[in-house]
Amino acid sequence: MIDPFASATALLQALRGKKFSSLELTDLYIGRIERHDAKINVVVVRDFERARAAARAADAARSRGEERPLLGLPLTLKESINVRGLPTCCGVAAWKDFVSQHDAPATLRVQAAGGVLLGKTNIPVGLADWQSVNPVYGRTNNPWDLARSPGGSTGGAAALAAGFSALEVGSDIGGSIRVPAAFCGVYGHRPSDTALPRSGQFPLPPTPNPAVVMGVQGPLGRSAEDLELALDLLAGADVGEDVAWKLALPPARAAQLKDFRVAILPPPPWVPLDAEIEAGLERVAALLGSLGAQLRRAQPPEMGDWREHYRLYRRLLCAMMAARVPAAESARWAQMQRAVGEEFARAAAEGTEASVSDYFGWLLQREKFRAAWRSFFLDCDIVLAPITLVPAFAHLELADPLLVSAEYATVDINGKAERYVSQLFPPSIATLAGQPATAFPIGLSKGGLPLALQAIGPYLEDRTPLRFTALLAKEIGGFVAPPGFAA
User: Fold this and answer.
1) Residue 311 falls within a domain, yes or no?
2) Which residues, at least 6 apart from 32, have a Cβ–Cβ distance to it below 8 Å?
3) Cβ contacts of residue 34 below 8 Å, gap of 6+?
4) Is 133 part of any domain?
5) Which region holds residue 200: left if phi is over 0, alpha if psi is between -120 and 50, else beta?
6) DSSP 18-52
7) CB 416: neighbour CB atoms within 10 A?
């Protein structure tokens, strides 16, 4: 019997052992999507006919003795990632009829590895929310609680949790891989800033843009081993640079938990944090200490109270977002942000209205923080921190379909209404400097929702947080399937 909730690595081992065929596994996932996705609404672009053809081709290749890293494995991609012949609208109504004539680098690499593409998964408008809802495809629900968000902008974490797919590729600039992974109880890896191509998203040809920073593409899976498998296939230079540039990620810094040097990040006093997530961080820290890991509570001293770091992140993030919209719309955003009258909202407005010289200056400031992390990781292997401020929150109706409206929304944290946009802080810890970070589950809340943390590693040493979280899963457990989706 095929377990639809098995890890990708386990499913591949079974495929290689001919326990079942790719077509059987593909049909299983298609049947589950057709049976259950009406409740979740996550696989919004379906490519079942081509998937079955690819599965048959994979079975024929294996019968000839061929082997590839993902041969015959059914998987999904985030809707914003271009696939030739499939729509890419990023949840924007004006783009709903766009059909891509190009394949993104991520698409080409998973297909070259033998992956079977089932379809693409839901996102928020413009990839700019921790919910996955838009006027084109509607709202995606969390399989752990249909009244709650699965996270965003990579809503495909819900497909993994519900047993609709074996692997997902998403993207992350505001936590868009790590937050959905946390909310749905799966694993998600934000790669080092330059480890993977950035191109191939949005209704555009897959043209590299050297001005883009912080935003990355990366994998989600049901185990840390799945993430490393996918990372090995996806990593490498973008189009043009791949003629000569090759990426050789170094091995993990340690092979056992007791050999890792772990810094527990002290939470800034101005950032609210759910009490159960805070308690979960302390439980994991205590376990690591009992196993002999070298623990300390520390951060790069240059971060101070994190306010300067976070202001810079908000400026750069909003500069990236505003570059995608007409000038009149970005002016409206800036006006809304300034009206909030709060320091980080003002920083966001500065980013929205940024000049070219502003942007260049901020990139130079960013290098100060990148240098701080390089120095810190000379004596540390892992930084352990929250990735969300709360477990999956109840669905919200935002007044504006993009994240700028989040300046006005609130979310409940420990019984108190806090600013919704404050949830950008945990992802920003790794994002601003481009550090690799793996989100991983640590159990369930008292209310039965997944809890998670992130393990942040040294730049271009992605295998270190991946190995760390894989080892930790053997001690605390890993992915657990949500109730109600077994059949």
Assistant:
1) no
2) 4, 162, 163, 164, 485
3) none
4) yes
5) left
6) TSS-HHHHHHHHHHHHHHHHHHH--EEEE-HHHHH
7) 9
- 3-state helix, strand, coil split of the chain in percent (to 5) is 40, 15, 45
β-strand 261-264 against 382-386: which pairing, if any? parallel
pTM of the model: 0.98
CB contact set of 257 (below 8 Å; sequence gap of 6+)? 288, 291, 292, 293, 468, 471, 472, 475
Q: Which domain holds residue 251?
A: 8-259+384-476
pLDDT tens digits, one per residue of 54-112: 999 999 999 999 999 999 999 999 999 999 999 999 999 999 999 999 999 999 999 99
The Cβ of residue 136 has, within 10 Å, a number of other Cβ atoms equal to 19
| Domain presence at residue 292 | no
Q: What is the pLDDT of residues 206-218, one digit of tens each?
A: 899 999 999 999 9
Q: Which CATH number covers residue 78? A: 3.90.1300.10
Q: Does a structural domain hold residue 354? A: no
* Measured distance CA(106)–CA(300) in Å, rounded: 33
pLDDT digits (tens, 9 = 90+) for 241-280: 999 999 999 999 999 999 999 999 999 999 999 999 999 9
| Measured distance CA(139)–CA(123) in Å, rounded | 9
Strands (E), 197-240: 216-221
Distance, in Å, from the CA atom of 150 to the CA atom of 182, rounded to the nearest integer, reads 9
- The residues that bridge with 261 in the sheet, in sequence order, are 294
- The whole-angstrom separation of Cα 126 and Cα 453 is 26
Determine the distance from the C-alpha atom of residue 410 to the mean position of all C-alpha atoms in its chain, rounded to a whole number.
23
Count: domains in the chain: 1
